[in-house]
Each structure stands twice: as structure tokens, then as C-alpha cells.
Amino acid sequence: MRTLFRFHGGVHPPEHKLESSGLPSARAPLPGLLVLPLQQHIGAKPKTLVQAGDRVLKGQLLARAEGNLSAGIHAPTSGTVLSVGTRAVPHPSGMEDLCITIAPDGEDQWAQHAPFDYLAMPKEELLTRLRDGGIVGLGGATFPTHVKFAAAPVHTLVLNGAECEPWITTDDRLMRERAAEIVQGIEILRHLVNPAETVIGIEDNKPEAIAAMREACANTGIEVAVVPTLYPTGGEKQLVKILTGKEVPSGGRPFNIGVTCGNVATAYAVHRLVHHGEPMISRMVTVTGAVKTPQNFEVLLGTPISELVQLAGGALPGADGYILGGPMMGLHVGDDRLPIVKGTNCVIVKSPQLFPPQPPALPCIRCTRCAQACPADLQPQELYWFAKARDFGRAQEYNLFDCIECGACAYVCPSHIPLVQYYRYAKGEIWAREKEKNAADAARVRHEFRLERMERDKREKAEKLAQKEKAALAQSAQAAADPAPGGGAAQAPAATSEIIAAAAERARQHAAHAQPKNTGNLTPEQQAEIADIEARRAHIREIAHKPTESRPTESRPTESRKE
Amino acid sequence: MLSSPFISKPDSVSRIMLTVLLALVPGIAIYTWYYGPAILVSIALASVTALATEAAMLKLRNRPVTPFLSDYSALLTAWLLAISIPSLAPWWMVVVGTAFAIAVAKHLYGGLGSNPFNPAMVGYAVLIISFPSNMTHWLTPIGVGANTLSFADQLSYIFGGHLPNSLTLDAVTTATPLDTLKTQLHLDRPVADIFSMPIYGHIAGKGSELVALGFLIGGAWLMFKRIITWHIPAAFFGMLFATSGIFYLIDPTHYVSPLFHITAGAAVLGAFFILTDPVTGPTTPRGKLIFAAGAGFLTYMIRVFGGFPDGMAFATLLMNICVPLIDAYTQPAVFGHKETGKQEGGGK
């Protein structure tokens, strides 16, 4: 028996798992339209390989991973590319992003694909295949799996089957129904990181999944650890703490303490890729909440929410929106045309009965229920004060960035203060300021470098000029000396050295004059140069003030989500 | 709400305050039994004053009245103040103290959640400084004095300042056991002798020790309901016990047993209901220990060496001042910043 450890805090929200965990999962039929956002993972947006009008086959690569921290996107079925362009994507801001839209042809015709022998290839190639196969963490964070599993060897491989968020039952159903396949996937991950021990953490509210995984893990050396049900046990750092007693250092990754953590659904996806040659084109999704028959479905990526809600018997009267993910960390969307993406593990149809609106927020009474619930040992009430007062420096001092936005604080707050929103706001402001500062710093460095280079150019030019003059003088001196062949040969070197000294003096004076001492009497050349400098300065200023493009790897909130 | 989390625990500030009010009931009931229903009149007076002042201040500050009035925080302040002062205090004293507590100590500092000082204790401090003699008119518990005031007599004194012709104020009131102890010790009476006086019970004052038991029961219930944590009562009683114990060990004829100190006066009420006020107390667990220990030490010092009969209120206010400092220096280690987080790297 493994000794389990505790993380600080945690909450027990009503589980609401039984609604959807009872029915076996079903395969969702082909939808009428598939919308595939290119950005379905943390990292760089993959590069589109198709254009409107192309016929694509199931499993065909539509967008190639761009750089290492990226992942491929594949056609979930055969059909025709309708468009490659911006459309609304599941995002808190309701923003639009590049999507590939496919009209399925109904034939579901596979592209050429085949299983491969991962033991026969170097690990680098296996990792590349994971990337090109579009495998990313399916617990919600969608961090590219090949990057996570490139760090090897580790002491402990942790598989996350905790599924601590209320309502969600995808991992539960997957473990009950496909335990053997998950274990085959885990074997591949073990091959990659070569751990001394492998342990699957499952919350004790999933006895069937525990039994199924125990059976599948028999004689594999993989341990199934039953952990107490406590939100957010499924948080990567929390689960690692429970199972190993070690804390992932602030700002670090589990690898820093010799651990790698992956979701059981990710292991299943790895198995499908390696043993069936199937890239990441579908996933298990719980459809629950205010629907007639909540259930899990194996869903093609890109399927609109509306089709899933229909499959679950339709929304009940009074439904007023959707939560993608769980009620603690999920994302609220109102548009049912939005697609299921790699990170969507659950669709909860909202209704005021199930999710009553919050009463108006009262002032904080410093009761510290939030601090007692915080799994990161933070003092949420202090962070709230600092965020509210826009005292971002103090917020950072009080470790705002160790907040995983699990929502436990806001859940217990008797004053109903939307605490997590304050933290997101503070983090956003700090990122924006840092970005601005970095841009300004970069501009300043560029500017200083340019000034220095101009100085150097002028100096060099002046020296060259001096050299030329010196040479000319020496020549004329030579010429002057030549007509007087009667002069003693011994005189010549002395005269030459005088001439050289005079030339050097002139050159020095010239060089001094060449420094821009005033702006009057400028040659057209100089004026052109100044205009050029001014233009560059203006450009730099513009860059410094313009909010720059998003920085891909620094989006911390996502990093800490369950994987 | 369009941002996660979308659920919240069915809990509220009102429920917390209501629970604390309920937890006061056993103590108040025993109080009423021993001292008559005058305390209920004070509580009612204070409650009405508190709600009216709260509403007026909210109006003046352009804040919504209903949500704040229904949070019961003003009511709690009123009850605590009414319990802290002599129940025979004239009506205007209750009104002045409560109104000051709500208007000045609470709302002038920003209202609920923003006041640095415990409003009830500020109200108490104002009254004991302004009307010191009235603040010594504690009713004699039943079975101690020869005369007992009827409810009508009590009402008549509170609202009219008249006692029945046959009685004087001295005949029906008495100094508190703490106060008596201090005065008698000044007269060089030995402790054992003093404790033979009829106002003393088994451990502390007759009647008042049972009232303290009532508040202890209420406090235990608050801990069970997780409204308060163990830190503040434990550190307060621990420090009060330790400090008084040291003096008692050195000179038991002039210093009383620590058991007396933790039972007498407002110690139990303070430990469970006053120091535990979240708004004016520290937020970190270590901070709570330091805060309450400081209050325990100061309470003893004021009781024994100070000019006031009890030290609870001033100890609370003095420690309230220290709260920001205590909080700043007792921040707990954050996840991943602890030593365990810096263990061996994994094959880096």
C-alpha cells in the first residue's frame, strides 16, 4: 500500500457524477459540419496544409505542427474542406480564430494509416510521431504530450484518473470500458520516460473504474492508488503531492522533482496512435446537466455542441448556456455552434435550477475560509485586496502566480466574491505590463545599439579619410622630394615623418569636426541619414506602445490545469 | 455569472453571523437566570439602535440598505456590547455606546469588513471612559444579596432612573468579582479571605462562572460548526493561564489562581466571540496564535496592574492595532516554496 499524502485545503462540491456515469458511452454519429480550430493545444499554431475545396480523408494531416511546442491537426472524417478562415472558437472572450471547416461526405474513408512498432524506433522518432499525431494532454490543459514525455528518465510516472471536477465522468467511463487499452498506452509512456514506478491515481468515488484498472494492471507493475475524493485532487501538482509527498517547485514542472504526470485519456490516445495508427481525431465527452439523458459520447473533434445536446435527448426547458469542462474551472459559452476541441472533456447544459445565479457580493469579512480551502496554501483574501487595489506588486509578492485558478476559494466564500476573476484580472494586468516593459526594453536596446553603430561608422569613415589624406600627402611629399635629387638621402625620412605627423594632426581635427556638433550646415547626405534615424525611432516607439502578439508559452493559467 | 467557478457552497455572511448569535444564547439564558431579564432589555435596546444606526449610515454612504442590514453583523455588535456592559445601564448609555460602535467604529472606517477595531469593544471603551460609575453597577446575582429587583423595577431603573423607595443602588448592585478582588487586594486582604465573600462561587464569581460556562458551550459549538478555529481560544487561554500561573506560583497570597482568571470576567466571551471577530483579527493561523496570546497577556496585565476592572476590551483593541503587522510577518509557506519542493531533481 502506498502512503498517501495530503495537500492543504480542498473542497467537497456536490459531485453530480451519477447523472452521466451510469450509461455506457456511445459513439456520436457523423455531424453535418466539422469545425477544427487550429489552436487546440498550448503552444504554436500548426501550419495549414489544405485549402478550401480540397477533399480530405479521415486521419489526414490538415495542419502540421509548427516547431516543437505544437501538435498536428487531422481530419476527423473524410469530406471536403469548406473553408480555412476565422470563426468563433471556444474561448472565454468569444474570440475568433483560424479554423478549418469540413463538410463530411458520409463515407468516413480512412487515409492510409498503420500501427507501428514503437520499440523498434529511437525515442525521438516516437516523440515526433506523437507530435504529428496531434497527441496532447486530454485532462483539459492540452499541453503537447511529446514535450512532456521528452524529459526522461523520471522516478515516478503518475497517471491522472482522479477526475475531481463535479459532473465530468469521461475518464471514469473510459477506465471502466477501455482499461486494457489505457494500460497499453501507459506502457508506451513508460517506455518513453523509463520510470522506477508507475502509479495511477483514481478518486475513491469511482469504484468500478478502480476495479477495472486494477484488473488491467495485474502483472504490469503499474499500481492503482485510490485517493480520497477531494477537489482539486486532479490538479497535477496536487495529485503528485498526494502520491509522492513532494511539491512541484513554484514555477516548475513535475519533472523538476523526478515525476511526469499524464492523463489516462491521453494514454488511451497514445495507444490509438501507436497500435492503430489513428491520430487524435476524437475524444470522450460527458454531456450532462439540463439534458434529458446525460451520457458520455465518443465524439469527433469539431462536432458542434448542438449535435451533442441533441444526442443526449435535448436540453431541458429553461436551459440558458453551456459550460465546457467542469463547473469549477470550465468555460461558459452561449453559442451551441461552437465545436468540441481536444481540451473539451465535458459539456454541461446550464439552467438556473442547476446553477442558480450568485447573490450579490458582500465585502470580504476576512473569515479566511478561502485560505483554508486553497490547495496552493495561498492567502486568497490578501490577493483579493491587492488585486482590487491594483497593487499588483504586492499581489506578486504574495505569490499570485502560484494560484492555479481552481476556484476553491470562490466556492467557499460566504460573501460570494468572484475571487478567481480578480486573480485573472491581476495576472492579465501584470502580463500586459511585462509585455509592454519588455517591448520598451527591446526598443531601447536596439536604439542604443544603433547609436553606437552610427558612431562607429563615422569614426571608421573619418579614419579612412585620414588615411587617404595621409597617403596623398605622403605622395605629394614624395613628389616634392623627387625633383631635388641633390638633397641628401638622409633628409628624406625626417621630412616624411613630419608630413605624416601633420597629416595625422589634420586627420584628428577632421575627425573632431566629423562629430555632429550642431545641426546647421548639414549636407543633404547627413540630412537623409537623420531622416532615416528619425523614421526608425518612430517605428521603435510604435512597436513599444503597440500591444504585441500573444506569447505562446507563458500562459500560466493553462499550465496548471489538470492534465 | 459567466466565469468559473459556476457553483458555490450554500453559505453566506448572514448565516455565519446568525450562527454566532445563536451561539450566544446559552450564555445569555444563564445570565438571565442569575441576574434577571434586564439583560434582555439591554440587548433589545442595543439591537434596535444598531439596526437604525446601520440603516442610517448605509443611506448616508449611498450603499444598498437591505443586503447589508440583513447580514446580521450590526446585530452581533449590539449583542456583544449589551452583554459586556452592566445590564442595569440606563437606556441612553446602551444607545450611545451602540450608536458609536456602529457609526464611528464600523461605518466611518468603511463598514462591514473594513473596520480595524472591534466595534463592540470600541463602544465598551467609550462607555467605560465616559461613564465610569454607571459601568460599575452590576446586578447582584440571585441568592447573594438580600434584595432582588423585579423585572418592573429593572425596567423602571433602565428607562427612568428610579429604584423602589426602599432600595438604594448599592443594595442591588455590586462590583464584579474581578473588581472586588482588585480593591480588596489593595486593602491587603489575603486571597483566601476575599474568596470567602458571598459573590464568589466555585472558581470565579457566583453566577458569572456559569454564564462563562454558557459561552464556553456556545464557543465549542462555533468550533464544531467551523465558524471559528481552535487557534484563538487556545492561545488566549493558554497565555492567560501561563501568565497568571507564573504570578500565582510566585505569590499565591496576592495573586489568584489561573483558573479564576480564565473563568472570570469577559475571558470566555472574549476568547470565543470577541477576539474571533474575523474582520478585526489576523488571517493566518500563526498570526491568530500570536494575536490571541498577546491579548491574553495584556488582559492579565490590565486586570492586575491596570486601572480598569477587566482587561478584555482594551487588550482586544490593542491587539487589533497589531493585526496588519502580525499578518505581514506570519504568511505561511506557499505550495512549491517549501523545502519539500526543493528535493532532488529528476535526472536533469
Topology diagram in text:
The complex is a heterodimer of chains A (563) and B (348).
Chain A: H1 18-21, E1 26-27, E2 34-37, E3 47-48, E4 55-56, E5 61-64, E6 73-74, E7 79-88, E8 96-104, H2 123-132, H3 145-148, E9 156-161, H4 170-177, H5 179-193, E10 197-203, H6 207-217, E11 222-227, H7 236-244, E12 259-263, H8 264-276, E13 282-289, E14 295-300, H9 305-311, E15 322-324, E16 331-333, E17 346-349, H10 369-373, H11 380-388, H12 392-397, H13 408-412, H14 419-481, H15 491-514, H16 524-545, H17 556-559
Parallel strand pairs in A: 1-14, 9-10, 9-12, 10-11, 13-17
Antiparallel strand pairs in A: 2-8, 3-5, 4-7, 5-6, 7-8, 13-14, 15-16, 15-17
Helix pairs in contact in A: 4-6, 5-8, 11-14, 14-15, 14-16
Chain B: H1 13-35, H2 38-60, H3 65-69, H4 73-84, H5 91-107, H6 119-130, E1 138-139, H7 151-160, H8 169-172, E2 173-174, H9 177-186, H10 191-194, H11 208-224, H12 231-250, H13 258-263, H14 267-274, H15 285-305, H16 312-329
